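Bumping with the actual sequence this time:
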Amino acid sequence: MHKLTCLLALAAPTVGCASLHAYDIGETDQSLPSRPIEIAVDETGISLQQASAAAGALSDNKAAGRAGTIAELLNYGPTTGNSVLDAKYADGVVAALYQQCPSGRITGVVSVRESRTYPILSGEIVKIKARCQD
């Protein structure tokens, strides 16, 4: 059902689709009082396959489709969501957590990796929720 909803959403250019790629929950230490902290970072992703298909359809040029296929083959490896413009967009998440919790006593970590997909483009999102024991 989810895939059908996403396909229908791609038919309308102003509608998107949300996909959850990973969700992890850590243990919570309740021995001390804590306060909630949250970090969210995102980056624009591009579906090279959709972009090359659109370019090929608009230009009637088969080379555009082949270029997209070659670009996808060069971006191999385990992925969730589309390739992003800046592959290091989430590198600062841990530092941002420690900035919000200077004591370093972080517990109950919940990490979420999701994307919002639109035709050709997507928003790739990493969210971290936790509790800081000051």
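The tokens above came from a reply further down the thread. The two ends are 44 Å apart (CA to CA).
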